[in-house]
Amino acid sequence: MERGPDGDRLSAVVDFGDVTAGDPAVDLATAWLTFDREGRRTFRAQVAADDATWTRARGWAVSIASALWTSDDRAFRTVGRRGIDATLDD
Predict the structure, then answer these.
(1) Does position 20 have pLDDT exceeding 90, yes or no?
(2) N or C: which end of the chain has fewer CB within 10 A?
(3) CA distance 64 to 77
(4) Distance in angstroms (rounded) separating the CA atoms of residues 68 and 3
């Protein structure tokens, strides 16, 4: 907390929950959860990762999309469905 002219206020949050040495392919799963086919092609061309990492990323995308698809939230289900469709499209 920081004391300012208006009293105490929260000025930052440091979240250490995901500070791990995990699989970098998880970060690449967004290719299928976020982009269309052309966007995935462009994204992949810009990221230096080998084919094995991209294969794992696709698997992570299926896993994440499957979890989203089972959500009670309609927006999450939509992203999950699109992610599944995108992984099947490639």
Answers:
(1) no
(2) N
(3) 11
(4) 40
